Amino acid sequence: MATIFSRIVAGEIPCYKVAENDEFFAFLDINPVAMGHTLVIPKQEIDYIFDIDDALLGRMMAFAKRVAKAQEAVIPCKRVGVAVMGLEVPHAHIHLIPIQKESDMYFGGKKLTLTQEEFADVAAKIAAAF
Ligand code: AMP
Fold first, then answer.
1. In 10 A of CB 81, how many CB atoms?
2. How many angstroms does the Cα of residue 117 sit away from the middle of ligand 1?
3. Fewer CB within 10 Å: C terminus or N terminus of the chain?
4. Phi-psi group of 53: left, alpha or beta (phi > 0 → left; psi -120 to 50 → alpha; rest → beta)
């Protein structure tokens, strides 16, 4: 059965898309820890990020870097933090999180509540800068 993220790529489940190429897809995390919190995934279904072969993983990080540069261009932040956990969704994904301070990377607390318009607006801004 396809992962929820493959179903997003296929357009079966809606998302706030940020960027795409033939191998990778980026979209906003639906439970953001910070404004602009984005997930980067390979289109190929691979559960664990460190099972991805070296060449594809390298290209995935280069794609994530481009997304991060776009986030930096449109979201006030000191850095874009990077996290990988994968405990919830068995489809490799890199969290890219615009941060001002270390605690902005905290996943255990209350998530941001954004309206559909706010999600759509930030996704469109990052997409335009990509
Ligand atoms: P983890 O696998 O621990 O990295 O957590 C999965 C992440 O995917 C969480 O931050 C969720 O909020 C996010 N997520 C799960 N389903 C969706 C979805 N349909 N659209 C966007 N983000 C999602």
1. 18
2. 19
3. N
4. beta
Residues at CB less than 6 angstroms from ligand 1: 4, 13, 15, 29-31, 39, 85-89, 93
Continuous H helices in 27-91: 54-74
- Measured CA to CA, the distance from residue 20 to residue 35 in angstroms comes to 20
Q: Position of tokens 């439970």?
A: 31
**C-alpha 76 to ligand 1 mean position (Å):** 23
- CATH annotation of 4-129: 3.30.428.10
Ligand 1 atom nearest residue 37's Cα: 10
pLDDT digits (tens, 9 = 90+) for 67-91: 999 999 999 999 999 999 999 999 9
* 85 and 67 Cβ atoms separated by less than 8 Å: no
Distance 5 CA to ligand 1 centre (A): 9
Q: What is the DSSP string of 42-57?
A: ESS--SSGGGS-HHHH
The Cα–Cα gap between 97 and 77 comes to 9
The C-alpha atoms of residue 93 and residue 66 are separated, in whole angstroms, by 15
